[in-house]
Amino acid sequence: MAEKRPGYSVDPVLTMDPFIFLDLEREGRGKSKQSPGEESYPSSSPIWFVESDDPNLTSVLERLEDIKKSNTLLLQQLKRLICDLCRLYNLPQHPDVEMLDQPLPAGQNGTTEEVTSEEEEEEDMGEDIEDLDHYDMKEEEPVDGKKSEDEGIEKENLAILEKIRKNQRQDHLNGAVSGSVQASDRLMKELRDIYRSQSYKTGIYSVELVNDSLYEWHVKLLKVDPDSPLHSDLQVLKEKEGVEYILLNFSFKDNFPFDPPFVRVVSPVLTGGYVLGGGALCMELLTKQGWSSAYSIESVIMQINATLVKGKARVQFGANKNQYNLARAQQSYKSLVQIHEKNG
Predict the structure, then answer these.
(1) Where is the sequence biased in composition, kind Acidic residues (predicted)?
(2) Is the separation of the CB atoms in 11 and 21 below 8 Å?
């Protein structure tokens, strides 16, 4: 019977192809035995390696070395790894990844005693995993990954994102989860990207969640081409009604981003600009045939802005405002889709 080598452990942490492994000790690559007195995790840094020659994966692992050593090093590296791999493979990131930001409780920041046996190490690691749900949140000393994720976002918008996360957790506890993990993760990313964007910060458009729902947005087009007739009409509208924007409604389904959002004009009533009955928009990119899951919501907003101007949209002053509604917009959109499918 082959002898078991003491003190050696290699644990796969991500089961995607190719495999990425974590070596918590310095034995295992080019060594048949661990030298006496040789340090292992957490006294020494974890070693990550991948069974692939893909330079993108190698780069992902190299970035782990940039994280400063601390008593939460493994958790920080694990979060960085998950986030980078999700971006690399264009996958949504699960909200529970944020739990890896939670710092260790007070009293665990001192020097860690050397682990004397494999059994003790495995027992301690198991306890650490069980304690993840009980870590106290601290605002100081943010983890690098969290800090970079929130960088460039104003405090008021960070508060909105945090409120959404709290609502999601509460809905989960109450068994009243709406939407899907995939769609929610992507929409959170889209919202963060919008809050960082210069177009948003310079007031070209604004975004508000309807009833705090991540799946329904009100988008206001605040600025259009100043040389366009539509811009002049909006100035007149401001003088008459105190409103100088075009209000759009975005609604998202559970299978977003693989299906496009449904977008309609809420107000004012427009003529031209590829606006259909009920306020639906005649744009191929908003149909399944023309949509791509790679499109960002900001790019869609900016494209709608440009399309309205290109289509010579004008404000229809004195029009019946009730002619724009969800039912009529959905019917117009359905007819548009049928035309696109028929014409290929």
Answers:
(1) 115-127
(2) yes
